[in-house]
Design a protein that fits this description.
Number of domains: 2
Strand content: 25-35%
Mean pLDDT: 91
CATH topology of the largest domain: Quinone Oxidoreductase, Chain A, domain 1
Structural class: alpha/beta
Low-confidence stretches: none
Number of strands: 18
Largest sheet: 9 strands, mixed
Distance between the termini: 10 Å
Oligomer: single chain
């Protein structure tokens, strides 16, 4: 299968490119074959913020067409490194194509890629974890998204929810959002989900939110006397502004996490309530690495049945299907109840 590339200055424009494997590996390098990768809103975020947050540096293309990183499963096909041997399998970031070259440095589990162009990136993006089972398509789609859900649950709980008794989650149909809603059911807060009118019924059917409102129903969003904490996974400035104006002084904290909406114009006037703060998950993941690893394993056991029941896996097996799926994802036309996994020929 060819590799998907997008215009760095216009990530909605995409094309397929044939990429031959390297003729020779240098000393210390290894060749990984990509078995399959997940296609989610994370990938759209990586493309839209590629220059700002360095995502294009993961797999440089050398021209105006960027290589979007994707979370995937890969297998060692060749190695001139003492760290890796052919046949080993790993989970980590891969290009949306058939292979990548790494210069592995061994860790207690897995390895990190030490190629120079990745030197300034977070260790979260450069680390590859060995696969020892649990490599289902559902786990592939959900692992990075639910990892952010677990991290947010830890951060919010440690802060005592900043004194709030209500948490509002935008983009409630997103997998990160309803993963967090699942975790918050064990916390002493009321959880309200905001979603598009068309998706309100499906989000309500998940049974994970105490209340679900459409974006057209913000007037019915109740300011909580005990205070409200907003976790914004939509990244829509107009929506953010409307929520701040609606909740006013009852809003005690506003956290910007995601970027599922990318076409709205920014809000020009200052917002009432707290200044929104940007949450960069990789930095927090590094700080809480051990705690997060232990908590994730426990949390996934409880959430896996929910993920399996709520998500239908759609397999993509050729380049044209990949192009269509990416364009639909970028345009927001993907059914939230689906998870897309791209299978590459072995």
């Amino acid at each position: 299968m060819p590799e998907l590339r997008v215009r760095r200055d216009d990530p909605g424009t995409c094309a397929l490119v044939e990429v031959p494997p390297p003729a020779d590996l240098a000393d210390g390098e290894a060749l990984l074959l990509v078995e399959r990768f997940a296609l989610t809103t994370n990938n759209v975020t990586y493309a839209l913020l590629g220059d700002r947050l360095g995502y294009w540096r993961l797999f440089p293309s050398g021209d105006a067409w960027g290589r979007i990183p994707a979370w995937g499963y890969c297998r060692v096909a060749g190695s001139r490194s003492p760290v890796l041997v052919p046949g080993q399998r790993f989970f980590g970031l891969v290009p949306m194509g058939p292979h990548l070259t790494v210069r592995p440095v061994g860790r207690s589990t897995g390895f990190t890629d030490d190629l120079p162009h990745r030197a300034r990136l977070s260790p979260v993006y450069n680390t590859y974890h060995p696969l020892t089972g649990g490599d289902s398509d559902t786990a592939l789609v959900m692992r990075p998204l639910f990892g952010t859900s677990v991290l947010l649950d830890l951060v919010l709980s440690d802060s005592g929810f900043s004194g709030a008794d209500t948490v509002v989650l935008t983009s409630a149909s997103s997998k990160t959002s309803y993963g967090l809603a699942h975790l918050l059911r064990d916390r002493p807060v009321t959880v309200i989900g905001l979603t598009s009118p068309a998706r309100r019924g499906w989000v309500s059917s998940l049974g994970l939110y105490d209340t679900v409102h459409g974006y057209d129903e913000l007037d019915s969003l109740p300011p909580s006397p005990g205070g409200t904490l907003l976790v914004d996974l939509a990244g829509d400035p107009a929506l953010l502004g409307a929520i701040h104006h609606r909740l006013g002084d009852s809003l005690v904290r506003s956290i910007l996490v995601g970027f599922t909406h990318q076409r709205s114009q920014p809000v020009a006037e200052p917002l009432p309530g707290p200044v929104p703060e940007f949450f960069f998950a990789p930095d927090e993941m590094v700080r809480r690495r051990r705690e997060l690893g232990l908590r994730y394993a426990e949390a996934w056991r409880g959430f896996a049945p929910v993920a399996e029941a709520s998500m239908r896996i759609v397999s993509i097996v050729d380049g044209e299907q990949l192009l269509r799926a990416y364009r639909d994802l970028f345009a927001g036309r993907i059914d939230p109840s689906t998870g897309h996994v791209v299978h590459l020929p072995r």
